[in-house]
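In the design runs reported in the main text, the only information available to the sequence generator was the tokenized backbone. The following block is the verbatim input for one such run; it is reproduced so that readers can re-run the procedure and compare outputs position by position.
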């Protein structure tokens, strides 16, 4: 190993430590006996138990909450991925005077704080009687990730889809939808996979949309919202919350582990035409 490689490895370790230590502390808190945790909250665990995981699973009904979360994430991923793909391809093949400002306006939507538009959306949803609906919450969650997904896929296609390819498809007689299906979608698959993975992770860990739109219906609680039921005025139950957080964290880790290649291709695959 050369000196440069060692420097890179050391730098990577330094970056990873702030992320790994809290995760290890979360696991330690969730699997320690209560007396062990009380005696030394920040110390190394001296005991092991799964009681907190079992209690969190039953008391917060995490099984149902997990299914609800997956349903909401599926809807969010479909909304964000399909709309981002269509919008990104449209602005790639259409370069008119108005498309530049329109693209900037759509991309700038990511800079608007969610709370600024979520409350008006909640008023509309409440008036329509749609609060507590997982499908509606999934649509709103997908829309919140839409500016990023649109900008990401458009940037990827702008680098990987050449003007010559578009012109060749036009000369071959391919219409807009045929070119989109045969060229746009295959070319955008790496970026689309990255958008799906990130949208899933963001929606899976969401609390703001869930607490705003699903609070009225306990049967529709997601994992993050169900975990809040473990806390009462009499007992904060940090270990129970840590156990619930660990349960909600594991699926996102699985998605990241599976989607590593897609994320790498999505963020760097468009650099070369």
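Verbatim output:
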């Amino acid at each position: 190993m050369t000196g440069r490689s060692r420097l890179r490895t050391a730098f990577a370790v330094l970056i990873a430590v702030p992320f790994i230590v809290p995760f290890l502390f979360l696991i330690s808190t969730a699997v320690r006996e209560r007396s062990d945790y009380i005696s030394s909250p920040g110390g190394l665990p001296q005991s092991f138990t799964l009681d907190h995981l079992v209690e969190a699973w039953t008391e917060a009904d995490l099984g149902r909450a997990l299914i609800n979360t997956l349903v909401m994430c599926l809807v969010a991923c479909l909304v964000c991925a399909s709309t981002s793909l269509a919008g990104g391809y449209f602005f790639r093949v259409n370069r008119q005077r108005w498309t530049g400002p329109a693209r900037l306006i759509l991309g700038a939507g990511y800079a608007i704080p969610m709370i600024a538009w979520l409350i008006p959306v909640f008023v509309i949803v409440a008036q329509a009687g749609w609060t507590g609906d997982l499908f509606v919450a999934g649509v709103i969650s997908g829309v919140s990730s839409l500016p990023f997904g649109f900008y990401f896929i458009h940037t990827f296609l702008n680098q990987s889809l050449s003007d010559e390819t578009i012109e060749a498809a036009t000369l071959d007689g391919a219409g807009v939808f045929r070119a989109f299906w045969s060229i746009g979608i295959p070319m955008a698959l790496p970026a689309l996979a990255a958008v799906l993975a990130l949208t899933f992770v963001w929606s899976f860990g969401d609390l703001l949309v869930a607490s705003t739109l699903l609070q009225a219906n306990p049967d529709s609680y997601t994992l993050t919202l169900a975990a809040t039921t473990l806390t009462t005025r009499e007992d904060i139950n940090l270990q129970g919350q840590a156990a619930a957080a660990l349960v909600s964290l594991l699926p996102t880790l699985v998605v990241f582990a599976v989607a590593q290649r897609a994320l790498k291709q999505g963020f760097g695959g468009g650099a070369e035409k």
